[in-house]
Amino acid sequence: MKNKTLNCIIVILTFVVTITNSLCMIYNSYFSKLDRLPKGEFMFSSMSNDLSKTLKVYKVDINTLGTGIRAEVVQYKNKKSTTKNIYWQLNKDTAIVSWTDDNHVQINDEIVDINGEGFDSRKKIVLPKTNL
Questions:
Q1: Which of 14, 23, 107, 132 has fewest C-beta within 10 Å?
Q2: Nearest to 114 by CA among 92, 84, 94
Q3: Backbone dihedral region of 61: left (phi > 0), alpha (psi from -120 to 50 degrees) or beta?
Q4: Mind listing the pLDDT tens digit for each residue in 44-87?
Q5: Domain ranges of the chain
């Protein structure tokens, strides 16, 4: 009787841990943040109009997903710099960059607020309509 109870507890705990791990993996796959992107190969940089920010653009090759573009902004303030990823787009291998003002930059067709969350193509997936 004691062995059955112990086995039942082990099975339930294993099930709970498996479900929890699966949910965490799904969450991290679809709702990951821009700060955990691969580094990539440096392509070019662009300075803001006020010269206090630099946008650095990288080309990232991922075996299973293809080529992507990652951009990070480096802000200079009080002799210190902070770096933040602001752009991620898969299936692109080039980037066209232009600063619209000191806080917004256009990368390809997306205008990105450098103080906001940034642009992440994984969050902008649109499924095609089907005729069923």
A1: 132
A2: 84
A3: beta
A4: 999 998 888 999 999 998 877 788 999 999 998 888 989 999 99
A5: 1-30, 38-123
Q: Are 69 and 47 in contact (CB under 8 A)?
A: no
Tell me the C-alpha distance between 103 and 69, whole Å: 20
The answer to whether 71 and 107 are in contact (CB under 8 A) is yes
Per-residue pLDDT tens digits for 13-42: 999 999 988 887 766 655 566 777 778 899
Q: Which amino acid is present at 18?
A: T
Q: Which two tokens stand for residue 92?
A: 């692109």
Q: Which residues contact 49 (CB under 8 A, 6 or more apart)?
A: 99, 101, 102
Structure-block tokens of residue 95 = 């980037």
DSSP string, 60-109: EEETTTEEEEEEEEEEEETTEEEEEEEEEEES-----EEEEETTEEEETT
Distance of alpha carbon 128 from alpha carbon 126, whole angstroms: 6
Return the exposure string of 84-116: e unless at least 16 CB atoms fall within 10 Å of the residue's CB, then b: ebbbbbeebeebebebeeeeebebeeeebebee
Three-state DSSP state, 13: helix
